[in-house]
Amino acid sequence: MKNKLKSIFPLSHPQHIILGLALIGIGLILICNDFYFFWPPFATGFLNDDLIGGVFIFIGIRLFSWAISDKNKITVNRNLLIATAGLLAFGATAEFCHGYVSGHPHMITAGFLEVIILLFDFSIIGKSKKHNY
Fold first, then answer.
1. Which of 65, 75, 100, 113 would suit a FRET pair with 84, their CA atoms being 20 to 30 Å apart?
2. How far is the C-alpha of 84 from the C-alpha of 9, rounded, in Å?
3. Residue 5, Cβ neighbours under 10 Å: how many?
């Protein structure tokens, strides 16, 4: 059964697929909620722009497509994982700041979840190939 499943849908990078789906989910939340970020007041227009959620979705789709592709390039993987780490660090910092300012515990919880996903990303970076040789 396991061999049949691998021949039908080969998954050589399941961690990348999980990370890509997480980014797509975060991006959809940011696109669907136009009033998610409320602090600092001068940056709410930028932070709530659909472009921010679109970047999350774009990187998530690229990670997903890299994971299921047969032509995986190490440099593309490295760049995608670094971009993912930057996005997640940005998101976690924003969540913690909003949670501190507003006192809403769900914002702090979301910040912790993004830190956990960031640590998962660091784990993938640590286990990934660094060079072509």
1. 100
2. 25
3. 10
The rounded mean pLDDT for the chain is 90
Task: Tell whether the model's pLDDT for residue 124 goes beyond 90.
Answer: yes
For residue 42, count other CB atoms closer than 10 A to its CB: 7
pLDDT digits 0-9 by tens, 53-62: 999 999 999 9
Q: What is the pLDDT of residue 72?
A: 83
Nearby residues of 131 by Cβ (< 8 Å), 6 or more positions away: 74
For 49-110, the DSSP string reads SHHHHHHHHHHHHHHHHHHH-SS--HHHHHHHHHHHHHHHHHHHHHHHHHHHHH--HHHHHH
Provide the whole-model pTM. Answer: 0.87
Report CA Rg, the chain: 17
Find tokens 């940056």 and name the residue: 43
